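A further point concerns the way the authors explain their paired sequence and structure data. Each protein is reduced to its one-letter sequence and a matching series of backbone shape codes. An entry of this sort, consisting of the sequence and the corresponding backbone structure tokens, reads as follows:
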Amino acid sequence: MIEGGRSILDYGCGKGTLAKTLRATPFDVRQYDPAVPSKSALPDPADVVAALDVMEHIEPDRLEAVMSDLVRVTRRILFVVVATKQSKRWMRDGRNTHLIVEDGSWWRGKFEAAGFRVRRIWQTGLPEWVAMMEPA
């Protein structure tokens, strides 16, 4: 099991790729995405929460609320992958789809201020911040 847990919440799941990938495993994989009506119900806490390519898409004035919700839903582990450069995609209103473009140290500070303790950071060689955290 992952860190002694069985439940995984894909926070900002989009098309549900993580759930599809893990469907043949013993994990209880749940999906949440406020932009997908069928997956927009407020999620219950899970042992492991994954926010993969999510945080950079959050409206800046909603970031604090999203971080608070991540604290609420994370029982044991939060795993994040956050892009640290602009996307190749643009919205109709002219904004880049990566609404928050900051480096890893900025993201670490935000997560720590929200109530997480960083356990590990991976250096992937890509323009992204990859970290595993736990509630402090």
